[in-house]
């Protein structure tokens, strides 16, 4: 990521599909609100303390960890699908997060999101999550706010009472996977 460090007023940066391997030279982009780096080869998150950023997409990269977002307290939307992430971590400080997409990873449990009071959309489909039991505690802080959850193609979605259990956990749920409820 070269020749961008002088763009102080830049609000949106889209560098998808560029074979980027590292996140660098963005520390001076303090007004950046959206960063789109999907379909690259990034292995590690390095946001250089960007505190104003509201949307980040690192879909289809080579991430194996979710650490590196802790200082992004203004973050509202985080898209990390199609990576190799095995554990949810580094999210507890993201109290403004409304959308979290960690679908198509290697997750076996839902962690570190119990204190996210504004979380509305949670995409966990195509992972390895075994049990619905842990989800209730995992989303304790956003239970009333959550309106959309995707868990399809996880072992827990094969439970015969899958939808009814999720409706009990989330009283204001409007969508479970592709099923929309009135």
Automatic annotation (TrEMBL):
It is found in: Nucleus. Keywords: Leucine-rich repeat, Nucleus, Repeat. This is Protein phosphatase 1 regulatory subunit 7. Belongs to the SDS22 family. It comes from the Eukaryota. The lineage of its organism: Eukaryota, Viridiplantae, Streptophyta, Embryophyta, Tracheophyta. The keyword Nucleus applies. The keyword Nucleotide-binding does not apply. GO terms for cellular component: nucleus. Its main location: nucleus. SUPFAM superfamilies: L domain-like (SSF52058).
């Amino acid at each position: 990521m070269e020749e961008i460090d002088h763009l102080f007023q830049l609000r949106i940066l889209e560098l998808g599909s560029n074979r980027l391997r590292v996140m660098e030279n963005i520390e001076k982009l303090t007004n950046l609100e959206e960063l789109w780096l999907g379909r690259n080869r990034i292995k590690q998150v390095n946001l250089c303390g960007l505190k104003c950023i509201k949307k980040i997409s690192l879909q289809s990269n080579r991430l194996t960890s979710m650490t590196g977002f802790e200082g992004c307290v203004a973050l509202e939307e985080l898209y990390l699908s199609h990576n190799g992430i095995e554990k949810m971590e580094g999210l507890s400080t993201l109290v403004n997060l409304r959308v979290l997409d960690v679908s198509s990873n290697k997750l076996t449990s839902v962690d570190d999101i119990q204190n996210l009071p504004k979380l509305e959309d949670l995409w966990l489909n195509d992972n390895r999550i075994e049990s619905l039991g842990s989800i209730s505690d995992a989303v304790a802080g956003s239970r009333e706010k959550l309106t959309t959850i995707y868990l399809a193609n996880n072992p827990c979605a094969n439970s015969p009472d899958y939808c009814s259990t999720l409706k009990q956990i989330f009283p204001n749920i409007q969508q479970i996977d592709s099923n929309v409820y009135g």
